[in-house]
Design a protein that fits this description.
disordered N terminus, alpha+beta, elongated
């Protein structure tokens, strides 16, 4: 009986608990579409709560796939995408395959040289061209060049299409012009002349048509004068006859017939003028068909025919001379499963997340071992270490040449740091040696006359008994920190070299130290813990915040420059946690199985994050997630050897990385338009009629900001809740 009583009480308590939990859901958060993240970290030693449910579904297609993003209740619903279309590709929206409209030989391929345009002489062609010109009227001004026709006094300007042909007002002028040869990548405008098929016969025909028009007018005028004279003679005969004079009727009838004959002749010559104008129009059309012009503005993608090559006209199949692409307007093609396609429609706005593949700007080679540490000084010098007994200092203005060396008295050095851009009194570099000593170097001592510095400003001794593995300066350069293989962190006074405090709490090699503010330090270790240290004015420790549960693959973890966020690695997800409470505020996720490794660093303005993937040579630059936008990959930095370390320049203009093959690489950062604005596109069609097992094609259209995007680039299309 007692056993049944215990069971009954237990079941009753369970029912009450379920009821309490159901009634205790956060109603306010539901109304605001936000669920509080409180409790993600409940204290030292507790694992982060992963509240993301499994993926809700994914579609795979030839051009990409689309999947619902995992719904994370800790984020505002407004920034959780409704759906994501991955692996989309950009293509030009307008393409012109420029044809040859006439048979013949290419006389040249190029565009007229603009006034003042400077071109390499090797890229110039001098070509004789024929120009149809028309006599200018009194008081008329012309924007185009004014021509003189031999034997005629009036000025002439280029003929404008659809102007009426006036006899004795037209002329054909031949002159030599300079043309800039076209090459793939050249920018052209709609209507621009791109080349010419040999027009000699067409010019001759046009010249004869002009002469025929002038002659037909002369005949017409002559017939009119003759008719007028015949009419005058007829009127005189009729007047004499009326006055009773002796005029034979036969003579009067003959004069009347003569007037009629000349009247018909005048009509015939007038028709001859009409015919001559039509012939002139055909001759001009024939000449125009020898021209090769752009129907769209864009760039030359490829050239198939060059100067001197034969081409076929429209009647024989029309050869393609070149291909133009309008780079200012792009379409984006992706493929989705039918269940997602049903919620998409033409006119819907989508967010575009492009990914650029970038090559390095500079590559420096001098180290003999894999580079283990890099930093950039406040004046743009790059400092690198590789476990050798010297540290290299590089100047970007001196490609493949070290500006100077910091001699470390045969002490192997692995890590380096530089004083921050603002507020720091000196331009110092801090190095960490195998002997456990930190050394402070004055980079301003390196000049054109001084090629190396062999003596440090200060040495930080009596701190570590094992190699230094992490170093950092505080925001104003007042303090610095060194982390060691002995699991300790030391805080030092930069001005005096005095050790202010030794921090103990990690259970393994220190891999990263970062100052979040003047009195907060974040450290990471191989023990998979992230520790937040609060420092007093004298450098002593006030308290410790412990964040456990890291994957541990990312050795260097960055802190946002505002000191309010830290990066926290968990395999293929990189989380952003708030400081000091450690709450979830966003994440970056790699597609597929690739995990994050080596480093994850914020840019100086906090808008970008540099990461390294487990794939060979896969460096990524991400847009930092915010309260209103998710984080996503902006560019991939491609090199053939894995990255080992990295740093942003203090001014945020470039990023530098070290590699396993001993190269120091300087990389460009994404354009401002890519960082500060979300690109938008409109869906133009959803081809549900083409649905099959591989999915449904979705087409979107967008303008290309400053032509930054290239055909073939990849992108992700994101549909947010509330999108119309």
């Amino acid at each position: 009986m007692l056993r049944w009583l215990v069971v009954s009480v237990t079941l009753g308590v369970a029912v009450v608990v379920v009821g309490v939990l159901a009634a205790g859901l956060p109603a306010v958060d539901r109304v605001q579409n936000v669920v509080s993240p409180a409790g993600l970290f409940n204290g030292p030693g507790q694992q982060p709560r992963d509240r993301m449910p499994p993926n809700l579904g994914a579609g795979h297609g030839l051009l990409g796939d689309m999947e619902d993003e995992p719904i994370d209740e800790r984020l505002p619903v407004s920034i959780v995408p409704r759906a994501v279309i991955r692996e989309c590709r950009f293509a030009p929206y307008e393409v012109q395959e420029v044809p040859s409209r006439h048979d013949g030989e290419m006389s040249h391929l190029g565009t007229p040289l603009l006034p003042g345009e400077q071109v390499d002489p090797e890229d110039l062609d001098e070509v004789e061209v024929g120009i149809l010109v028309v006599e200018m009227k009194t008081g008329e001004s012309a924007k185009e060049p004014v021509y003189k026709v031999p034997g005629r006094v009036p000025r002439y300007r280029p003929y404008v299409d659809l102007e009426p042909f006036e006899p004795n007002k037209l002329a054909l002028v031949k002159q030599k012009q300079h043309f800039r040869r076209l090459k793939p990548g050249a920018v052209v405008k709609e209507g621009q002349l791109l080349g010419m098929i040999n027009p000699e016969l067409a010019l001759d025909e046009l010249g004869m048509a002009i002469a025929e028009l002038d002659a037909s007018e002369a005949k017409y005028l002559a017939s009119g004068e003759t008719k007028k004279e015949a009419k005058t003679r007829l009127d005189r005969l009729l007047s004499i006859q009326k006055m009773g004079g002796a005029v034979a009727q036969e003579e009067v009838d003959g004069a009347r017939l003569t007037v009629e004959r000349y009247r018909y002749e005048e009509i015939e010559n007038l028709q001859g003028m009409v015919t001559a104008k039509k012939k002139l129009g055909r001759a001009l059309t024939s000449l125009n068909q020898h021209e090769i012009r752009a129907r769209i503005s864009g760039v030359v993608k490829v050239i198939y025919k060059n100067k001197g090559e034969a081409v076929k006209g429209v009647e024989k199949g029309a050869d393609t001379v070149m291909v133009l692409q309008n780079s200012s307007l792009l379409k984006i093609d992706g493929k989705v499963d039918i269940q997602y396609a049903r919620s998409l429609r033409a006119g819907m706005e989508v967010v575009v997340e492009p990914v650029h593949r970038e090559s390095h700007e500079l590559a420096f080679r001098g180290h003999l071992e894999p580079i283990t540490g890099v930093a950039v000084s406040k004046n743009g010098l790059i400092v690198s270490a590789s476990g050798e007994n010297q540290v290299f200092v590089w100047d970007r203005a001196r490609v493949n040449q070290a500006k100077g060396l910091l001699k470390l008295h045969r002490v192997r050095t692995f890590v380096v740091a530089c004083t921050p851009l603002d507020d720091a009194a000196h331009n110092y570099c801090l190095t960490g040696g195998e002997d456990g000593i930190g050394r402070l170097w004055n980079l301003d001592a390196l000049t054109d006359n001084v090629k190396q510095v062999s003596k440090p400003v200060l040495e930080f001794t009596d701190g570590h008994h094992k190699p230094i593995t992490a170093v950092a300066f505080g925001p104003k350069g007042k303090w610095c920190a060194t982390g060691s293989d002995d699991s300790t962190i030391c805080i030092w006074d930069v001005a005096t070299g005095t050790k202010l405090e030794t921090l103990t709490g990690h259970r393994g090699k220190i891999t990263s130290v970062q100052f979040a503010s003047e009195n907060q330090l974040v450290s990471a270790s191989v023990d998979q813990m992230l520790l937040l240290w609060n420092l007093k004015e004298n450098g002593a420790v006030d308290k410790i915040k412990k964040l456990e549960g890291r994957g541990g693959e990312v050795a260097m973890l960055g802190v946002h420059p505002n000191g309010k966020q830290v990066l926290f690695d968990q395999g293929k997800e990189l989380r952003l946690l708030s400081l000091p409470d450690g709450q979830y505020t966003g994440s970056l996720q790699n597609a597929g199985a690739m995990t994050f490794t080596t480093m994850a660093l914020f840019s100086p303005d906090g808008k970008l994050i540099l990461t390294n993937g487990a794939a060979e040579g896969r460096l990524q630059v991400w847009r930092t997630p915010t309260a209103t936008t998710r984080g996503y990959e902006l560019s991939q930095l491609i090199w053939n050897s894995p990255a080992t370390c990295g740093a942003f320049s203090p001014d945020g203009k470039f990023v530098v990385t070290g590699s396993k093959d001993s190269y120091l690489l300087v990389w460009p950062l994404p354009a401002k338009e890519m960082i500060e604005k979300q690109l938008k596109a409109r869906i133009i069609s959803v081809d549900t009629s083409l649905e099959d097992s591989s999915g449904v094609l979705v087409h979107a259209q967008m303008t290309n900001p400053n032509n930054l995007l290239l055909a073939g680039d990849k992108a992700t299309l994101v549909v947010y809740p509330g999108t119309k």
